[in-house]
Amino acid sequence: MYREQEGRFLGRRTMITVAELAKVYPNGCNALKGVSFNIEKGEVCGYLGANGAGKSTTIKILTGMIKADSGSALIGNYDVKQTPEKVKRIIGYVPESGALFQSLTPFDFLEFVCKIYDMDKSVYIRRIYEFLEMFELKNEVNTPMASFSKGMRQKVLIISSLIHNPDVIFWDEPLSGIDFNTTVLIRDIVKDLSENGKTFFYSTHLLDIVEKICTRVIILNDGNIVFNEYIKDNEKSVSLEEVFKKYIDTAVIKQKATEIYKNLMTG
């Protein structure tokens, strides 16, 4: 199912270049320990790992939200550390927290996002309504998002990451709370956009979705990359779950769960 990365995208433009990124938080947590990888134009990269592996830290550094302690990162031709404002012009982002202004309506929030990117009003008005209809939110266009479900708010965030037509899209657990129909829609959107040169960097715990939409898988464990290969279009001799278990030790977690269960039954 997987093959080595060398030679897969010869002649393509590199859109994400990461070299020896390291990050230690003030509490002593060593989140990244010299992470390096390249992502080419049109790739859909699944970025996997257990909780605390460093996935969200990587994305926050690449989107200019926090600074790395050492190492470098380029998005397109722009250095994240030196020109973060230029990086932010060409990226879309769905944060893990799913935070947005819930007092606003979907239209107000998306208009706010479009204005940040200096989009022409005639263009963004059309896109807002098209996206809201696509995601089955057209009847909620003027409803304050405080009344929305988690999945509905997540749809608005996904739209906000795409509406300005960015070159690189960073998604951190974007499908949290999303229903099946929307998941299928998003799979189709990712396929179409990647085939037209858009690059996705997709952090998630949903291995089945990664197998369906990603062309590349990177697994992070305790701040280090332990797996970095392309997914073949055929030959599913090894599942992603088997690969994940090989590189991420789940035995300790299973043992703890068993102990807790026994204590509950005997308590």
Shape descriptor reads globular
CATH overall fold name? Rossmann fold
Low confidence ranges: 1-11
The biggest sheet, with number of strands, parallel, antiparallel or mixed sense and barrel status, is:
7 strands, mixed
CATH architectural label: 3-Layer(aba) Sandwich
Strand order of the largest sheet: 1-11-10-4-9-8-7
Computed CA radius of gyration, to the nearest angstrom: 19 Å
The level-1 CATH class: Alpha Beta
CATH superfamily label: P-loop containing nucleotide triphosphate hydrolases
**Count of the domains:** 1
Proportion of β residues?
15-25%
Give the helices and strands, then pairings:
Blueprint: E1 2-3, E2 14-24, E3 30-40, E4 44-48, H1 55-62, E5 70-75, E6 78-79, H2 84-89, E7 91-94, H3 106-116, H4 121-134, H5 150-162, E8 168-172, H6 180-195, E9 199-203, H7 207-213, E10 216-221, E11 224-231, H8 240-247, H9 251-266
